[in-house]
Write a structure and sequence with these properties.
The protein is an all-alpha fold. The protein has a single domain, classed as Amino acid/polyamine transporter I. Helix content is 77%, strand content 0%. The chain is built from 20 helices and no strands. Helix 1 packs across helix 8, helix 3 crosses helix 4 and helix 6 packs across helix 13. The chain is globular and about 65 Å long. The two termini are 23 Å apart. 53% of the residues are buried.
Length: 481
């Protein structure tokens, strides 16, 4: 019997899924990728892959969660038994839980930087500072294990407290406050950027349709972004789907999530790059944009300290809405499997992830070089953990697509999707063949050793694998009761 409740309000799953999807990457990575890869051309490819890959797998993952009414691990165990499939498919749940655990360990460290900058902005410490001063301040933060550990601890404890309070009093109540507040703050920062920055340059950077700038790497980046931006393959959507009312349309909800997530990224891009170009700064990629370039832009603008503080509160809120979705899949499993109380399960998850996060802390300073990770893998502990998640998530997403596309029967899918036969046929085609092949490309991009010429060949193997899965799972719909 499932230990799960159902969301009190029908719109909570939408808030929860958007909260999981909207994170640090939306605020800098998506806008930057768009501007550097042909603007409108990148958005077009992204939109097509969202439809062909992101939304079908989002529907599939939510469907598995709602169908099982269990945590990802226990849910997949239940589904493999009820559908008479190999227990190897339980790996979907384990891959999701592992991804969530690993991501939380380093996400908490990086999100903790926003605590530092919120304080510096609101106290006026950066007012009038030049580029050298702000850059040196960021370097000093990374060089301090004590400060990074403090912020890492504060952030992960705050996230754990929300999840530990329960589904309704914790996650649901928290999201109903955090998400609307984030949207309001984002609009305030956008209005400030329009008034004090260069909105025209930002719009040109993001939306100019330049197909010549969209390389093969840009296409692959658009495909990868369409997958990662929706938090697929890390257990969060499956865990949240287990609390979703059976009356809610999966298709309409999935489309709404994709639209809101993309809209937030676009508005954030317009707001951020209006400030960046208004201050004649470079739209550099990576954490430097968020923690060096933007503080410098705020330092040069009227009321910059106040608006900068509000902006970093936005960053913190977006990060917390994502981090609570990372805690939930593992915590829910511990509650179901070992009969722990929710606070006990959350404490165990958070403490273990916090401890692993210390490796990321050390990767920026005391163990920046010369560790066993550098010796064995040629990269820091942080880079190695991130690489693992970039492999686990798309692999989990690929398996989700295959399982939902082939193992779930026609009647089950129609019951969950509440749709017509035409959309069912399109969804099944996408989730059985198109999405797995596309996710395979994303998977291969995460493995540095794979050369480009192997991608078409392995993509073809994935399609063959989809047919093989079909032979394993094929159900004669006419036999269904």
């Amino acid at each position: 019997m499932s230990t799960h409740n159902v969301w009190t309000h029908k719109g909570t799953f939408l808030l929860a899924a958007v909260g999981s999807a909207v994170g640090l990457g939306n605020l800098w990575r998506f806008p930057y990728l768009t501007g550097e890869n042909g603007g409108g051309a990148f958005i077009l490819v992204y939109a097509l892959t969202i439809f062909a890959v992101g939304i079908p797998i989002l529907i599939a993952e939510t469907m598995l969660g709602r169908n099982s009414r269990r945590s990802p691990i226990m849910g997949m165990r239940f589904l493999t038994r009820t559908h008479n499939t190999s227990r190897a498919w339980e790996s979907i749940g384990w891959l999701g839980a592992a991804s969530a655990f690993l991501i939380l360990s380093f996400y908490s460290v990086i999100a903790g930087w926003a605590i530092h900058y919120t304080w510096q902005m609101l106290t006026g410490s950066l007012a009038g500072a030049d580029a050298a001063t702000i850059g040196a301040g960021f370097d000093a933060l990374l060089a301090s294990p004590a400060l990074l550990t403090l912020y890492h601890t504060l952030f992960i404890v705050a996230s754990g407290l929300i999840v530990g309070m329960g589904i309704h009093k914790g996650i649901e109540s928290g999201l109903r406050i955090i998400m609307p507040a984030l949207f309001v703050i984002l609009l305030i920062v956008l209005a400030y950027g329009v008034a004090n920055g260069d909105f025209a340059a930002a719009a040109s950077f993001l939306f100019t349709f330049n197909l010549a700038d969209l390389s093969l790497e840009g296409w692959l980046a658009a495909m990868g972004q369409s997958f990662f931006t929706l938090s697929l393959g890390m257990g969060a959507i499956m865990a949240y789907g287990a609390y979703m009312s059976s009356e809610i349309s999966l298709t309409r909800t999935a489309i709404a999530i994709a639209i809101v997530d993309t809209a937030v990224a676009m508005v954030a891009g317009l707001a951020i790059f209006s400030l960046v170009f208004g201050a004649d700064l470079s739209p550099g990629q990576g954490p430097g944009l968020m923690f060096v370039t933007l503080p410098l832009a705020f330092a040069e603008m009227p009321f910059g300290a106040l608006v900068g503080g509000v902006f970093f509160i936005l960053v913190l809120g977006a990060a917390i809405s994502s981090s609570i979705s990372l805690i939930e899949p593992v915590a829910a499993f511990l509650v179901e499997r070992f009969d722990l109380t929710r606070p006990q399960a959350v404490f165990a998850m958070v403490m273990a992830s916090w401890a692993l996060g210390l490796l990321t802390v050390a990767s920026f300073n005391v163990y920046a070089e010369g560790t066993i990770f550098h010796t064995l893998f040629g990269r820091s502990a942080f880079d190695f953990i991130e690489l693992l998640t970039n492999i686990f998530m798309p692999l989990g997403g690929l398996l989700i697509a295959l399982f939902a596309g082939w193992a779930l029967t026609h009647s089950e899918v129609m019951k969950e999707m509440r749709t017509n036969e035409t959309w069912f046929t399109i969804w099944r085609l996408l989730v059985r063949f198109v999405a797995p092949a596309a996710v395979a490309f994303v998977f291969l991009r995460a493995i540095p050793q794979v050369e480009g010429y192997l991608i078409p060949a392995i993509g073809a193997l994935v399609i063959v694998g989809a047919f093989a899965a079909g032979r394993t799972f094929l159900v004669d719909d006419s036999q269904e009761q």
